[in-house]
Amino acid sequence: QSVLTQPPSASGTPGQRVTISCSGSSSNIGSNTVNWYQQLPGTAPKLLIYSNNQRPSGVPDRFSGSKSGTSASLAISGLQSEDEADYYCAAWDDSLNAHVVFGGGTKLTVL
Amino acid sequence: QLQLQESGPGLVKPSETLSLTCTVSGGSISSSSYYWGWIRQPPGKGLEWIGSIYYSGSTYYNPSLKSRVTISVDTSKNQFSLKLSSVTAADTAVYYCARRVVPAARFDPWGQGTLVTVSS
C-alpha cells in the first residue's frame, strides 16, 4: 500500500480535461513539494511536473499541477491519445526515517 | 545531455545478492546539487524508491528495505551502485537509476531501466 493515495484509473475523451488526485499527509505533501511523473507504456518514467506546478522544458502547457494542504492534483487539458500513460506523484517524507514516497499510480485511458 | 545507464545481471538466485551499477555520462556525479538514486518497479506494479546517495557517500534508504540495501558511489568512474541482499521473488522488478534534485523527490533524468529476475 502506497503512502500517497491516487485513484487507480482515470479516463477521458480527446479534447477533454482530466484531473488526477494525490493525497498524502502532513509529513509529506503537507510540508514538501510534489512531483509528477508520466510513464508511457514500456518506457522509463519521465518528470512531468516538479515543485508542485513547474513544468520542465519540453512539457506542454496542457499539463499543470497544484497543491493544497496535504493533497495535490495533476490536470491535463486538451486530452490527446498520446497522453495515455501511467501517472505517479511523489514527495519527500519528513517522518522519522526521511525518505521518498510515491503514489500507487493512475492509469489514464483516452477513450 | 546527462544520461544514466544501468548494468548488471538480469537473473539472480534466491537468497543471493543483487548488484547493479549506474554509469553517468554527460555530467559529473560530484555535483553539489544532486543525489543519485535507485527506484524499482515490479512487473505490472507501481514505483518504489530504494535509496539515494550523495557524491560524498551520504545515503538515504527506504525504511522497508534498509536492512538489505547498500548504495555506494565511485566518483573516479562516475558511477554509483546498488546491492540488495537476501533477495526473493518479490525483488523481481525493473530497476531504474536516476538523478535526484536535493532536497525534493524530483528525479530527472532516469536511466532506461534493467529487469532483474529472482529465480533459481
Descriptive report:
- The complex is a heterodimer of chains A (111) and B (120).
- By secondary structure, chain A is mainly beta.
- Helix content of chain A is 0%, strand content 45%.
- Chain A is built from no helices and 9 strands.
- In chain A, strands 1, 3, 4, 7, 8 and 9 form a 6-stranded mixed β-sheet that branches.
- Chain A starts with 8 loop residues before the first strand and ends with a strand.
- By secondary structure, chain B is mainly β.
- Helices cover 0% and strands 52% of the residues of chain B.
- In chain B, strands 2, 4, 5, 6, 9, 10 and 11 form a 7-stranded mixed β-sheet that branches. Chain B has a 4-stranded antiparallel β-sheet with strand order 1-3-8-7, with no helix packed on it.
- In chain B, a hairpin with a 4-residue loop joins strand 9 and strand 10.
- Chain B is globular.
- The interface between A and B is medium-sized, with 27 and 26 residues.
